Request: fold
Amino acid sequence: MLSSKVAPGMEITFIVKFYPEAKSDYAYDLMVITEREKFIVPIRAQGSRAVLDFPDMLDFGLVPVKFNNEKPVILRNIGERTTKWQLNMPPSFQVNKLEGILEVGKAEQLIFTFKASEARKYKEELTLCFDNFECSVPTLGEAHNDNVYLSKGHVTADPTSITLFSHQYYKIVNKSAVPIEFTWRAFATETEERDKKDRLNAQLTVEEQDEHTEIERRFKNGQLSDDEDDGSLDSDDSYDQSELSLKQERRR
Reply:
């Protein structure tokens, strides 16, 4: 414990010496007490740290729409301590491994995948977390519609007799450098198909709610006939014949 006095308007200097015994973190709170107050001066020293070698940016360049584009990346620990790492990926990008443990001097290969759903530029960020540290890495890509087209704009079926059939040839031409997957859909885009399904589901939900409301109203008003009631009971395997008879007698 040290004590001293300092005149008004003057200052006094103390030298703090640090003698570490190991490569580890050190923490100490130095307390200074005066005649009126006391305050704490935090002293912190960081020991060995993990340092991960990772690209400053991931750029997939110009890629076809709806095609899996892979980019291998080497993650290397060039620090002095083993660390656990974790990746938080943006929606349009994926990776084969989201977390792991990397020892000093070791490296691991990660495969990043970019599959664009529409033709546009993508600019997002992934987050790499390790050793109480977090960094953001810009992730870029631009998708375009490749040289794939249909051989005909429309198909006209030839006249044929009843119970017979006619046929026409229709080609999908792929002039791109990558294989493509295709499906036949009733809508031009996935957005239109999803919107149509959502509207149909909402309509079915409303109709189901209206049907339940009408059934409850008829039960309350006693408007259900015996046949309707018997049918509902027969459809339930939990009722046997004696229970059905007792149910009908109570209704009389």
About this structure: Confidence is low (pLDDT under 50) at residues 226-236. Residues 190-251 form one domain.
